[in-house]
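I hope you will forgive my troubling you with a question about protein structure. Here, with my thanks, is the record as I have it:
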Amino acid sequence: MGGPQFDRNFGGYRVFCGDLGSRTNKFELEKEFDSFGPLVDCWVARNPPGFAFIVYKHAEDAERAVEELDGRTICGRRVRVEHARPTGNKKGASFGRGYLRQRSPGYR
C-alpha cells in the first residue's frame, strides 16, 4: 500500500476508515483522529454506512494515523484504516477506496 497522497480537491491527505458501525458519527471519528494532527475534513458515509474519509493537513499526520489506528477498536468496532487511493474515475473524482456509487437511470 502506498503512502499518503495529496488531494488537491480537499487540500490535504485523505485516509480511508472502513468497517465502521452504522451509528458511527462524524464527531466520534474526529475525536479519535484529531489526536494525530489538524484535520481538514471528516466525512462519514450514510448510504451505505460503514466507512469514512478523514483529511489531514499534513502527510506525516495521515501516516501516523494509519499506522496507529489500523486494527484498533473505534466506536465499538475493529476498523481498517489505510491511505485513500485514486478511484480511477476520469471525471475529476478525487481519492477514494475504489468505490463508485451507481445511480438508477430514472434518478434525478
In short: The domain at 6-83 is CATH 3.30.70.330 (Alpha-Beta Plaits). DSSP finds two helices and nine strands in the chain. The chain has one domain: 6-83.
